Amino acid sequence: MPTDVKRIVITELQPIDRYPTVSGTFEGLKPGEKLELVNDHDLQHLLKYKFSIDYPDQYNYEYLEQGPEVWRVVIKKL
Question: Could you tell me the pTM of the whole model?
């Protein structure tokens, strides 16, 4: 992963801070910039449901790692 990609290890955050941190970081990205999320379970709910409501047509994503212990996803702001 290039060093210019912002990275959030979700498990290091308090549950109440997780979505505000992820969404705030995403909102601060410029088009074309990327955010890597690292978690201990699949981020499907966040990516397919929450982000699709809050940021429709503003992102795409790809899995870098899919468990069983670590999930890594890169979200690109369009």
Answer: 0.91
